Amino acid sequence: MIDTHCHLLWRLDDGPKTAIASMDLARLLVRQGVTTVLCTPHYSARFPTSHAVAGERLEELRRDLAALEIPLQTMLGAEIHFRLALSGPLEEIGERSIGGFAIVELEGAATAATPVAVHERLAEVGLVPIFAHPERSAAVRADFRGLDEARADGALVQVLASSLAHRRGSSVAEGASALLDTGRADLFASDAHGARGTASRLRSILDVMTQRYGADAVDGLTNVRPAAILKQALG
Q: For position 208, what pLDDT does the model report?
């Protein structure tokens, strides 16, 4: 699995607090079948993570992974809050993109129209949004039309294991399942923040998804589409 949403970098946001904790999470992800992680530290009002600092931390992480012989490839993106996607400096959003895509966090305050507004703004600088966990927005769950419009123009939808694991309640879990059931999900990722909780259940969640949607569909969500995005990033 290529994990396209993971808080693996320590002491940047609400992810691991120490380098040791990051290594513990990395080992767990490898045991769960993850081969590559796109590190996505928050970029929000609460966590205005410096992209330069995140890049330095990524290099430290890579050195630690190599020293400990943990077979995990890593790349750097960001989880951009939708409010910053709508009003933040476009150059700062651009530097946090990956392969022409920007991972945009949708959550409770997002409206059904937010995906269209974000897509239109990012298109000004040639970026395409990947909407992370739209299932967390009650307005989006109730009305997928804005999400559908953005997807029709090229945007992608990323459903997270933390949602399916009921970490955010049954309504969010049902919303994630609805996105998968109706073919609206393009990517599946862990949203792992530490070596406990959802990350330890990732393989079992994927097994359930495979039983429900088939191996080819799950491979598309976890390998084929993620690989295409990262390939674009590598040029």
A: 96
Cβ(135)–Cβ(182) below 8 Å: no
Overall number of domains in the chain: 1
- The structure's pTM equals 0.96
Residue 153 lies in domain: 2-234
Segment 177-200 shows an average pLDDT of 95
Domain of residue 76, CATH code: 3.20.20.140
Which tens digit of pLDDT belongs to each residue from 84-102? 999 999 999 999 999 999 9
d(CA 120, CA 1): 31
Neighbours of 166 (CB within 10 A): 14
**DSSP single-letter state for residue 74:** E
Distance CA 25, CA 121 (A): 35
**Pseudo-torsion of CA 13, 161, 129, 86, nearest 10°?**
-50
